[in-house]
Amino acid sequence: xxxxxxxxxxxxxxxxxxxxxxxxxxxxxxxxxxxxxxxxxxxxxxxxxxxxxxxxxxxxxxxxxxxxxxxxxxxxxxxxxxxxxxxxxxxxxxxxxxxxxxxxxxxxxxxxxxxxxxxxxxxxxxxxxxxxxxxxxxxxxxxxxxxxxxxxxxxxxxxxxxxxxxxxxxxxxxxxxxxxxxxxxxxxxxxxxxxxxxxxxxxxxxxxxxxxxxxxxxxxxxxxxxxxxxxxxxxxxxxxxxxxxxxxxxxxxxxxxxxxxxxxxxxxxxxxxxxxxxxxxxxxxxxxxxxxxxxxxxxxxxxxxxxxxxxxxxxxxxxxxxxxxxxxxxx
Amino acid sequence: xxxxxxxxxxxxxxxxxxxxxxxxxxxxxxxxxxxxxxxxxxxxxxxxxxxxxxxxxxxxxxxxxxxxxxxxxxxxxxxxxxxxxxxxxxxxxxxxxxxxxxxxxxxxxxxxxxxxxxxxxxxxxxxxxxxxxxxxxxxxxxxxxxxxxxxxxxxxxxxxxxxxxxxxxxxxxxxxxxxxxxxxxxxxxxxxxxxxxxxxxxxxxxxxxxxxxxxxxxxxxxxxxxxxxxxxxxxxxxxxxxxxxxxxxxxxxxxxxxxxxxxxxxxxxxxxxxxxxxxxxxxxxxxxxxxxxxxxxxxxxxxxxxxxxxxxxxxxxxxxxxxxxxxxxxx
Amino acid sequence: xxxxxxxxxxxxxxxxxxxxxxxxxxxxxxxxxxxxxxxxxxxxxxxxxxxxxxxxxxxxxxxxxxxxxxxxxxxxxxxxxxxxxxxxxxxxxxxxxxxxxxxxxxxxxxxxxxxxxxxxxxxxxxxxxxxxxxxxxxxxxxxxxxxxxxxxxxxxxxxxxxxxxxxxxxxxxxxxxxxxxxxxxxxxxxxxxxxxxxxxxxxxxx
Amino acid sequence: xxxxxxxxxxxxxxxxxxxxxxxxxxxxxxxxxxxxxxxxxxxxxxxxxxxxxxxxxxxxxxxxxxxxxxxxxxxxxxxxxxxxxxxxxxxxxxxxxxxxxxxxxxxxxxxxxxxxxxxxxxxxxxxxxxxxxxxxxxxxxxxxxxxxxxxxxxxxxxxxxxxxxxxxxxxxxxxxxxxxxxxxxxxxxxxxxxxxxxxxxxxxxx
Lengths: 331, 331, 206, 206
Ligand SMILES: Nc1ncnc2c1ncn2[C@@H]1O[C@H](COP(=O)(O)OP(=O)(O)O)[C@@H](O)[C@H]1O
Ligand SMILES: Nc1ncnc2c1ncn2[C@@H]1O[C@H](COP(=O)(O)OP(=O)(O)O)[C@@H](O)[C@H]1O
Ligand SMILES: [Mg+2]
Ligand SMILES: [Mg+2]
Ligand SMILES: [Mg+2]
Ligand SMILES: [Mg+2]
Fold this sequence. Notes:
The complex is a heterotetramer, with two copies of chain A and two copies of chain C. Chain A is an alpha/beta fold. Chain A folds into two domains: 12-183, 3-Layer(aba) Sandwich (Rossmann fold), CATH 3.40.50; 185-321, Hypothetical Protein Tm841, Chain: A,domain 3. In chain A, 31% of the residues lie in helices and 22% in strands. In chain A, helix 7 (267-283) links the parallel strand 10 (254-261) and strand 11. The two termini of chain A are 36 Å apart. The model of chain A has no long low-confidence stretch (mean pLDDT 96). Chain C has one domain (2-204): DhaL domain (Serine Threonine Protein Phosphatase 5, Tetratricopeptide repeat, Alpha Horseshoe), CATH 1.25.40.340. A two-stranded antiparallel sheet of chain C has the order 1-2. The termini of chain C are close together. Classes of the chains: A alpha/beta, C mainly alpha. At the A-B interface, helix 1, helix 6, helix 7 and strand 11 of A face helix 1, helix 6, helix 7, strand 11 and strand 12 of B. Bound molecules: adenosine-5'-diphosphate (2 copies) and magnesium ion (4 copies). Chains A, B: This is phosphoenolpyruvate--glycerone phosphotransferase. Chains A, B: Pfam families: Dak1 (PF02733).
């Protein structure tokens, strides 16, 4: 394991400290937690927006804190959901009486811990609503299973729910628009290598030099299919097809596209993937309203990428374009 | 070599196409070149700002195109300066009669090709000025040698010269402020692994599992010292000390800091480095006006980071903070 | 079986020792069908439990177990934190007021624990989770009144064999569907160690 | 030595063959003290040169060499592109008007080429660059009138030995200072192959 860290067991604490030290006039740490919060929170008249989850996905989640996006991001250990007491502190720090909205990615750990925090907050008289993001089409969706994972599409939920809250939307309005994003966003990823959890010291999985893994998650979980490395065009085609097979987007519809790097992939490669993705969309007559390329939701130093498609409408477009001061998503 | 590409010899062309496809309303490709240009160039009354160099440093250089930063970025093959004819096309595309300013990183190849382009442009009656960025303190500075390399500090030159040009600064005013940035910016980097040039197929250098290299450049050039991996704190201390030994910044002075990832380093590690850098600066009484963390000037999928310090004054601060629509440096 | 405050603390100490020793094994089990942190989570959690117990005076088994529950809940995170936390909270509530916990009471408490985990995680038996270790051990406890630690471990061992053959439908392992068959479930294995530690303490009884 | 249009084209074709064959070697030489692209640059450049020459009719050696210069200048980039380009441009200018280029004229042209490279790159002999191959070969040409291809290659071989021992002060290799000693300079080696190709064409003279 080659990492620029101090003690592996202190990596998350060091990271959170380093993040706050970068933007000391904008954010602060809630004492005795790993929760980073906007300095001006709670903001009178505004619904509080809470996200978080395991660490290792940087710039998620603290990078999305700022005017127009999140109010607080609660970090857990690497790939481990934060605990209910920490999430509760985050909720309390941003509640201005208008209620608090939780963005949760669909993993058992995240759901359990955030829901317990929500129950505790409600017991203290705070109104809480939530959305569970499940955009990963690689995973089968069924009410009898855990269901689909939440991956890079979560960034669009942060952006759009954040814009709605910043614009003074009520708790139920924020929930409504967040639900709409979740209903209209799909993603799928692939990897060439896996990252290494600092405290584990060895990679989540091993691939041969000529292998890639399709349908990986963002926690070093192996994917659904292992096969020989294909060209960027083939990869782009496979992921985009799987996404478009899963959502009804037709000729003339408008979408936003996110080509997301998983941590170790040069941006060059993301642009190469984008070339093909845009060609596929053009061929299908789908209008691309906005394209985002870069590292938005990573998995430590995993080499690979994910593609996210968000079906837009006249409500979502201005919210996507609304100003944001979050360091990882400036508009 | 594990890369998401098509033909290694087409990687740069595919990348440039994919970049333009991401921002079709903002940028376009100059026909038969690898030069990406602002769609609204040449801009009446504005000095044209040109940068570029070998590819493999993404988001540099095209990511810095946009209102408030560059007008055109000319890409060469991976780690290879673009040719004079391509740079000339870039210059011609952005000259609005106010002259054109070139930001060149100090490598023999870049200097030769850009200077030849400048001569050709002047022969066509275009006024050209330039700055040569040489911020890398790892390299000895002497008038008898090639001199120091230009690395991540170049981003500050783009930002500040870009803001000056956007504000209507004359060619000589743009040059003056760019020279000031170069005089006041210092950087140094280190790596845990080296990247692989697609057409070469093997990494620039090999490090053992317990080794790191201090003082690397951004082209896979090995560094000046190879030694056992140290902690993030030790690394931050060494790089920051070397930088501060080289520039006169004292108690109470204000600076901007850039913690730059070289391609494969998780942002988590950059924050961990930042924690220590900020502590060192605090101890020295140096005021940090702005901190930037992320991938700004990379070296393919190199794992490692560089630290850049820019000594600010009342002229530079507002230019650093001026609006920018460049996708890789939004303000 | 007679769990008093001292023995309960000893149970947790022995559990912690096992979790530290098995940290890498549990993490490795969590890599092919999970995210490779279960050993780290358990080692961190039970170390905090032991720290907490060593810092506190207790008069009642229930109080010890409540602190175990709260510590796991607030120090582990992930899926296993709330689930283990819920289990211990249920046991703590069930044994409230008892100076020493006898087998019958403990058997009743275990039923509560299993129900708590099921409810919290919206899962049931046969989904290749820790439930497939908690539940058969709990069932074994309900049977014979001359139940011995060896019997418990026999049930645990049998559960270990069968959990391997299940296909996961809950937790991260569910993403691998039929590929999860043939792998052990890390949460079931950490539960195995928890009860192995109990068996060791219990054997020291007489 | 008698370079006419045909032989000049042949020289470039043979150079290209060598650059393709030596691409990996030149790139590998550029890794320890450079950025690992010199072979790629040379292979790309001379392939384009050959494409250009095959597409064009020429009446004069000078015209061939001018196209070589312009192609290298516009297709290579890096440090080597403008330097090789300048060298060929100087040779082209020096041989302008000559139907066939004899040894004396070529020797004069080489002097111009060396000066051109030096001026362009602000470097001189002994700085561990391609100059340390161009310059000794050019000097050798100036000496004896019965100069043969074997003599040229002897000078080239000697230059190859001595360039290794130099410390770089120009180009990327300069960043490695004393560490550059013991390594061959990739640009000097590609220049070696350029003249080796010339020797092969020249030997076919008689
Ligand atoms: N819904 C569930 N019900 C019961 N146990 C579960 C459930 N989901 C996961 N588990 C258990 O949790 C274990 C994983 O724990 P851990 O790795 O610490 O958390 P995470 O999955 O969040 O990384 C699994 O091996 C399984 O036994
Ligand atoms: N200033 C200079 N003068 C003469 N030759 C130089 C100079 N700088 C570099 N070179 C030559 O160029 C070669 C490197 O070429 P190449 O790798 O293609 O370009 P780059 O260094 O831009 O990657 C060196 O080996 C050296 O021979
Ligand atoms: Mg986990
Ligand atoms: Mg180069
Ligand atoms: Mg896990
Ligand atoms: Mg080179």
